[in-house]
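Protocol step 4 of 6: record predicted structures for both targets in the notebook before any analysis. Target 1:
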Amino acid sequence: MNITRIEVSQMIGGRETGRVSGFVSLHSYEGHVQMHCAVYGTTPSTCRDALIAEALRQLGRMPEFRSGARSFSCAPGILAAQTAHA
């Protein structure tokens, strides 16, 4: 799975708790995967990147990827583009 686009939506967070949650969609030419993610201890400027990192962590824990039967990668520059988009 070569991830060609990443979208983060419905981000909800509380400054007092430092918890942010949202949906992360990972798109490829094969289709897309959407995950609900939650992260703690982020700042407003890093919460989007933290949610993306959590989604990639979760993707790697899925049985088909964890077993090595499938692999995933990100298209060149996709993560840098997401950071600039934030």
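Target 2:
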Amino acid sequence: MRSLALLLLGALVLFARPHSAMGGDADNLKTAQWICDALFSRFSPEEASVTVNGQRAFVTVKGLSLDGVRVERIRLDAKIDPSAKDLSSMVLFSRGELLLLEKDINSYFAKNEESGFRDLRFRLTPSGFEAQGIYSAKFIFNITVRLKANGVLALKPDGIYLDQVGFFVEGRRQPEFFTNEVLRSLNPILSTSDLPFPVLFKQVQMGDGYVALISDLIPLGGPTARRVR
């Protein structure tokens, strides 16, 4: 009798384990799908994938718009509260990576002249940026000049900024008050304030044709939801 009881107990343990794992995977997949759908609703990206394992989520979103600028890719390694009912409260903390392409910066400024520029074009390199365009503004009187600029892109808490900038007209460097006035109309190049949850980006990395915000992300295994526009 004792042997039969032990055999039944062993069978119960054997079958309970897979059921529990399957239940956890189902919950993780449900949360991953919810986050994926919420990201599509908020940002209308071209593609998104979300992996969830307990209180961690790994998110990759491609072709989304932030502050009116197309972003090639964002990746997030996030601590989450799966019981939360909205995206802003679900993501408790995250480390992020972001890739912004030169062509998308130029496309944005080609369609938006609120900065006072027209025909503004940027060229991104590992050492910084170069830009040129026609700038119109009113100081004591109205001016329209062809400006050239160089500098670097810097990371600040609310986005990517032009920094250490020199503006030049016909080869002559312009004074600081003029530089500050122009920068007020351009910065930030990309605002991350549209992100509805906290994201830590550690540093800026520039290359030929792109700028990246990078962090130490750790890939995550688990149930994954995917969606494509």
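Step 5 preliminary note on target 2. The CA atoms of residues 111 and 118 lie 9 Å apart. The first strand starts at residue 47 and ends at 53.
Proceed to step 6 after PI sign-off.
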